[in-house]
UniProtKB/TrEMBL annotation:
Residues 30-80, 697-716 are annotated as: Disordered. Residues 676-729 form the Chromo domain. PROSITE patterns: CHROMO_2 (PS50013), FE2OG_OXY (PS51471). This is Chromodomain-containing protein.
Length: 742
């Protein structure tokens, strides 16, 4: 259906023409409908970048709007999340005249993408949007026309309805079967026609938040340096949308400052601010001049962009959402939060069976996570980016410039007992991984870095993988390879007790044929977790970061709308680390632990030249050690309420009190947690500590209609679904499987 038929604010929704209600209609119905003149004058004026039916493979695609539609066979089962057909109107690519009939290369050639939206200016100078309808010459009946590749312009029309009619009419005249039309071109319900949600929140034509037919809130922005609005993200609730918009605006502001080229400053930001100046006038204007030191050196004042969600705007947004959903036959979901389980801080050691690989889950609160994620020194290029172009900042900040928060993180690592003897880091590397960006397998050099590598995950979950080291067949690497070659993994059960995907995985290609690299152990590293790699985890396996899809809307925080994972790799460079160990050994001659650590480090050559101590060598490293020893910042800590563990500095792991961090969202209504329907039990495992867990397939779907991902749950959480557990046990009994794998 084309929702532009009646503006929802004009009354209950309602003016959905019957003829649009079905997903697919016959050509005759459409053509007849149009002949009767019923709908064309009600057709929408605004169309959006992508259909909300889309399951874009990458939010970057959403933002860029530039991924061609991936065609799926109609027979593909739809259980798994899939990429569905894009809307027919492609905002991104009005084809300039000189490209209108090119040699065919590079233009979208399938389906409804032949209709392009085009801004145009009327005689009063108002921008209006018209649609250009193109028809692929290759589909034309005329042999001569077919020989010239490219497009034939059918016309420029004002409404989607007219565009579809024009396209279909031509396709039909050129001999397209009804089936083809149905599949590709016919149904205007593929076209989304939505309105800006409310005058309180309305941007100009192009930016702001608007509501989709499905009742989600679509955040539209213009990126700095860009001229076209893009869909940044979609949200189920208006607050999240506003938050995402504001976060984006802040990012643009930062980018504006960060730019050294005067001409780039405020390029599109200006456009944004202009549009906002018109909607939040007067004292309540959320566009404020920034502080003095916040101002750009240009004459343009710093402007803090903030889209304000007033109670009346929220009310209107919710009312519209209810109407929209009701029109779709859906009840508005309660305003309770989506599924979030309570998380408990926890340390797991030697995970994946890899010695020296330890993880601290829920190391700190979301508030700390966000502070680190948006830390200007660590991530100077702004909030989130959808491309890998600004992926890594090698912050060899030097000890004197080391952010206090890195010292605090180091103390979390020590105080939690994760690595009580961690040497104060003198180096931090901050990296951003937009969805689908990974880090190939590598070794963190034992000649360049000291004993321990600390990795902190922020903003989105990640997957750390370990794979045999091609240069060394040592220890576990060799064993993994042999297991793979013999296809015998009896000694390597799925690593119980870490996460469900912490298991043997086929890295690339087949198990044996592609050699030792084809196997990897994977470990999920959730947001707010901290891992340490030492010993064999450093030397016997290479590690890397898997490129993963964007997190679901539910799991990504609103302040990270693109689902970028950020990481901090915190290390002590080897010369300085050795100087520290030598100092400790001198001070504690009887401490066997220290002398052992020193001996172990001495087995690696020290690559002075590859570190910041290249010029100053040992003396420089000793100076750094002395600096740290008297630097009060090394004793800085987060507030007790901000970390997952409470302890006295220097306490043993057993003395650590684990604090339950509750998601901020999760406030009042704990019962909600238990309301998740269990479809069935699909797996069982027993953890190292003897705890039994079941893998639960949940009923229902997330906000995007995808089934929830199954998750491992302790037996004690499943008392209300004993039946499902018993059914599973019975089935296992019948199948005579071992307890571990059934
Ligand atoms: O992003 C991560 O956690 C891994 C980074 C890493 O392996 C490295 O910096 O060497
Ligand atoms: Fe690394």
């Amino acid at each position: 259906m084309c929702s532009g038929t009646t503006h929802p604010l004009a009354g209950p929704l309602l003016g959905v023409p019957d003829g649009y209600a079905k997903k697919h209609k016959s050509l005759k119905e459409i053509i007849d409908g149009s002949r009767s003149g019923g709908d064309s004058d009600k057709a929408p004026e605004l169309v959006d970048l992508v259909s909300e039916d889309d399951e874009p493979s990458d939010p970057a695609d959403v933002a860029a709007g530039c991924s061609p539609p991936k065609r799926r066979s109609r027979s593909t089962p739809s259980a798994a999340p899939v990429f569905r057909k894009r809307s027919c109107v492609n905002f991104r690519a009005p084809i300039p005249d000189d490209r209108e009939e090119p040699d065919g290369a590079g233009l979208p050639v399938e389906g409804l993408e032949h209709i392009f939206e085009l801004p145009d200016t009327d005689s009063d100078g108002n921008v209006k949007h018209v649609l250009r309808v193109l028809f692929p010459r290759e589909k034309m009946g005329d042999e001569a026309a077919r020989r010239r590749p490219g497009y034939h312009r059918l016309g420029i029309v004002e409404t989607v309805w007219d565009a579809v009619r024009l396209y279909n009419g031509t396709a039909r005249a050129e001999g397209a079967t009804e089936q083809e039309l149905l599949e590709e071109h016919l149904d205007p319900s593929h076209i989304k026609c939505d309105e800006w949600i409310h005058s309180d929140l309305q941007g100009a034509h192009e930016t702001g938040i608007r509501m989709t037919r499905k009742g989600t809130f679509c955040v539209r922005v213009v990126e700095r340096g860009g001229t076209r609005p893009k869909t940044l993200s979609r949200h189920n609730d208006i607050e999240a949308a506003v938050e995402a918009f504001n976060a984006h605006s802040r990012e643009q502001l930062v980018l504006g400052y960060a730019s050294t080229r005067e001409s780039q400053k405020f390029g599109s930001l200006k456009k944004l601010t202009d549009s906002f100046a018109t909607i939040l006038p007067g004292d309540d204007n959320a566009l404020k001049l920034g502080e003095d030191d916040d101002r750009s050196p240009s004459t343009e004042p710093s402007i803090k962009l903030k889209l304000k969600l007033t109670p009346s705007a929220r009310e209107a947004a919710e009312r519209m959402r209810t109407v929209r959903l009701a029109a779709r036959g859906e009840a508005p979901p309660p305003r309770t939060k989506t599924k979030t389980r309570k998380r408990t801080p926890e340390i797991r050691r030697n995970v994946c069976g890899i010695k020296g690989l330890h993880v601290l889950y829920e190391a700190f609160t979301e508030d700390v996570e966000r502070t680190l994620f948006t830390h200007k020194k660590l991530f100077p290029f702004g909030a989130t980016r959808s491309t890998a172009s600004e992926k890594r900042i090698d912050s060899t900040l030097g000890l004197a410039q080391m952010p206090d928060d890195i010292m605090r993180v180091a103390n979390v690592v020590r105080d939690s007992g994760l690595e009580p003897t961690l040497i104060t880091p003198d180096h931090v590397l901050s990296q951003s991984y937009p969805p689908r960006v990974g880090f190939m397998s590598h070794l963190d050099s034992s000649e360049r870095w000291g004993e321990v590598v600390v990795g902190v995950s922020l903003g989105a979950d990640g997957v750390l993988f370990f794979t045999p080291n091609c240069r060394s067949d040592r220890g576990i690497g060799n064993r993994i390879r042999n297991a793979a070659l013999e296809n015998d993994f009896a000694d390597y059960p799925t690593e119980s007790g870490v996460t469900e995907s912490d298991s043997w995985r086929n890295g690339r290609g087949s198990r044996v044929n592609k050699g030792q690299k084809s196997w990897a152990l994977e470990l999920e590293i959730p947001r707010r977790s901290v891992y340490v790699m030492s010993g064999a985890a450093r030397t016997d396996l290479e590690h890397g970061i898997r490129a993963v899809k964007a997190p679901s809307q539910e799991s990504a925080p609103a302040w990270n709308p693109l689902g970028v994972r950020r990481s901090l790799t915190i290390r002590a460079q080897k010369p300085y680390s050795d100087a520290t160990l030598e100092h400790l050994a001198r001070e504690n001659p009887r401490d066997k632990g220290v002398s052992q650590r020193l001996r172990s480090q001495m087995s690696f050559k020290t690559a002075f030249e590859a570190t910041t101590y290249g010029n100053t060598g040992r003396a420089g490293a000793e100076q750094a050690r002395a600096f740290v020893a008297k630097n009060a910042a090394t004793r800085l800590r987060f507030e007790p309420s901000q970390v997952g563990f409470a302890t006295e500095p220097g306490a043993k792991e057993d003395d650590v009190i684990r604090i339950e961090l509750v998601d901020e969202d999760e406030d009042e209504d704990d019962e909600d947690e238990d309301e998740w329907g269990v479809d069935e039990i699909v797996g069982k495992r027993v953890l190292e500590d003897g705890e039994t867990q079941y893998k639960v397939a949940w009923s229902g779907t997330d906000g995007r209609g995808r089934p929830w991902k199954p998750s491992w749950e302790p037996e004690s959480n499943l008392t209300s679904c004993r039946e499902a557990v018993e059914k599973y046990e019975t089935m296992c009994g019948v199948m005579k499987r071992s307890e571990y794998y059934c």
